[in-house]
Amino acid sequence: MNRTETLHSAPQSTTTADRLDSSAHRSALLAVEDLSVAYTSRGVQRPAVDQVSFTLDRGETLAVVGESGSGKSTIAQSLIGLLPAGGNVTSGTAHLGDRSADLDLLRLSDQSMRPIRGRRIGLIPQDPSNSLNPVRTVGWSVAEAMRIHRRGDKRTRQRRTLELLERVGIDDPERRARQYPHELSGGQRQRVLIAAAIALEPELIIADEPTSALDVTVQRVILDLIDELRTELNASVLFVTHDLAVAAERADSLLVLHQGTVKERGPARTILTSPQDDYTKRLLSNAPSLLSPPDRRPVPQTDPRFVAVDGLTHRYKTGKSSFAAVKDVSFTIARGSTHALVGESGSGKTTLGRAIAGFHAPSTGSVTVGGVDVASARKRPEFRKQVQLVYQNPYGSLDPRQSVGEIVAEPLRNFGVKDRGERRRRALLELERVALPPEIADRLPRELSGGQRQRVAIARALVLRPDLLVLDEAVSALDVTIQAQILSLLEKLQQELELTYVFISHDLAVVRQIADTVSVLAAGEQVESGPTEAVFNSPEHEYTRALLSAIPRPRITPTVP
Amino acid sequence: MWSYVLRRLGQALLVLLVAFTATFFLLHYLPGDAVIARYGSPQLGLSSAEVAEIRASMGADQPVWTQFWLALTGFLTGNLGYSAQTGASVSSMLTTALPETAALTLTSFLLAVVLAFTIAFTSTFGRFAWLRRVMRALPPLFISIPVFWLAIVLIQIFSFQLGLVPVIGASDLQALVLPSLAISVPIAAPLAQILVSSIDEVRSQPFVSVVRAKGASTNWLLWRNVLGNALLPALTIAGLLFGELIAGAVVTETIFGRSGIGRMTEQAVANRDMPVLQAIVVLSAATFVLINLIVDLLYPVLDPRLRKKVRV
């Protein structure tokens, strides 16, 4: 909401382009030149970052954008001197502050780095769930940097802690300061971590994927907060993210990183409107966009009530009390179409998905798939032939000791295909269908990339020829380029095999791309349901509008040639 | 909170009753008894009628259930019975032996804790890589050293060769040094192992980098952040190691000739001295249960996540 205000008070965003190239500019806070980092494991040196140079001006936000393995976090870690074991800076300089001060972050010892950490550079970490000491109070963690750097006496530290907590929007700071991290929500924890990072008013704030573990509405508030604080403290923000949309919305300039090298750098506007590098172009075109809805083929009308959810309520019992995770939800899905369940964490979308897949019987209400009642059919093995589930985490859902071929063939064994050769033949067929080469059948899951693993999980789900697939955040853990590939694979499979999908996701952009119809869930209640375009273009419920407006939107429309 | 403590105390009483009953019947059905052990020797020249009479006078001819009932009610009223071997009251035997053993086990335990922490800290936060490696190799070595062997080696080196600790006429404190050391080494080993692995685990958590990014020194990190998180598993093991402590006391008190509970146990077993054994088992069980109750009550003090929700 303070977006425009921030923009006006930071007029440099229009002229960043000129300054990026003149590295000796007076207002440059951080000048990184030829930074190279390598990881050594078992005597083998593997470069992670190769000759990266950039400057960051005072009061500016620079986003380092890249997919996993691009080296973006490594850059942040080497600047603050906290590379993981095996990581080494092999070349380069990183000057902080005035050039005359000649303070090269990369050449400082751990000892001389300590007065800089926390005081001149603040770090906002990636995952708020385990970035706070679990056995210390929130107030203790916020005050920690002040105590380490011996700032003020006990009373002033206490007062400052409460001030900070209040500033980052923690309600009732006095009470919260005495609470422990596990008593706070993810968004509140991230606020606390921000308060701790800015306690000593650092000039440079490194935000390493600060919102990737948060819900979209919380993400927006946290990003707004970082923006406001940057203006207030006249600090610079080095913003590490995999999310091009977030970067485009928040940053003055971008640094696009791929496999450790800079593909493109410059003002956000220039890169979005006229990307020069092929990789940047691909990244832009793969990013699911809310601005241009894809053309979808019409929904087939052979069986409009293939899946029918009717008044479904699911309660979890905890001791004597019970908690309704899903409340009175109804919708239908036509055969061969995709229905998305959208909501934030805790909205009940996974519970609903599991009820459709027959993993638990609903407390009240019913689900039918192909006219068969799931509650009564779910224990019968034949039901599993019809409905399969694909999980979010492709690392956790594959048996690490089985080869890919065995994993894909396992359902066949359970359904009485006795002949080994026959099982193998069908597994290979399924792998081919998900565009994996046959030699992958003999590998173990850990030898595959995240995208390949998710393909294996899909192949395993398909081997029994189900009619319905429940995809629970199936593409959420993947990089955008991989995500785009899996999504197009899913669409291809849907047409080939006349599959019906229940697509569970928190990502509205992805949902708009793949879903024909959508149900929006909030705290277990279905607030809206209908055709995707209708829901997205004219949302009727306030919650849907809030979700939609929270999605990061570049200030400039990206154009992909 | 208090209902929890009461429930745990109730469970503890149940455990004690089971321990009491099990020992009673085990000892009862073992071949031989205290009367045979003491009066059965042909050199004493007692006729079998006379032995039967002694047995009757001690109540050993009663049916097993009557004996059990008498023993149980005796325990409940504080009468632990009399040693079949010496005739002395078991409670007075315990009161003289207990302080000796308490001093021994307590110093051993403190020594073990100090040893374990030293090993754990130097093997995780130690300055030199070679030192960390050497320290990491210590616990497996310590675990494989038998107490009796270590005790004998310690006497050989420190008393006979170096003459640092007198064997005869040592002061109370001097007499404690070697036996405590002998017991503490095998107890320190598992404690150190658990500490090392939990410190490693805590150090790999993201919050540690966040603390370092605030400018924390290694000492700050260890004492104010890592340690509090790493203590919990070590505490569990410490409670369970109490059993080892008693076993260690039996061996070392015998070797060093200390007159404690351990020595008493050894003699009572040799003489089938049922009332004494019965009392020792119940005492050990009671201490074991108590220590583990304390450990359980300490969890929520150390880890706020284990505290019952007080506020809504």
Automatic annotation (TrEMBL), chain A:
Cited SMART domains: AAA
NCBIfam families in UniProt: PRK10419.1 (NF007739), PRK11308.1 (NF008453)
Record flagged with keyword S-adenosyl-L-methionine: no
Region (Disordered) residue spans: 1-22
CDD domains according to UniProt: ABC_NikE_OppD_transporters (cd03257)
Polar residues bias (residue ranges): 1-17
The keyword Nucleotide-binding appears for this protein: yes
A biological-process GO annotation: transmembrane transport
Protein known as: ABC transporter ATP-binding protein
Domain ABC transporter per the UniProt entry, residue ranges: 30-284, 307-548
Pfam families hit by this protein: ABC_tran, oligo_HPY
Family: Belongs to the ABC transporter superfamily.
SUPFAM superfamilies reported for this sequence: P-loop containing nucleoside triphosphate hydrolases
Keywords annotated in UniProt: ATP-binding, Nucleotide-binding, Transport
One MF term in the entry's GO annotations: ATP binding
Automatic annotation (TrEMBL), chain B:
Residue intervals of the ABC transmembrane type-1 domain: 98-299
Compartments it resides in: Cell membrane
Membrane topology, record value: Multi-pass membrane protein
SUPFAM superfamilies: MetI-like (SSF161098)
A GO cellular-component term linked to this record: plasma membrane
Transmembrane domains' residue ranges: 12-30, 102-129, 141-164, 176-196, 230-256, 276-299
Coiled coil (residue ranges): none
Keywords for the protein's UniProt record, in alphabetical order: Cell membrane, Membrane, Transmembrane, Transmembrane helix, Transport
PROSITE patterns attached to this UniProt entry: ABC_TM1
Biological processes per GO annotation: transmembrane transport
Family per record: Belongs to the binding-protein-dependent transport system permease family.
Name this polypeptide is given: ABC transporter permease
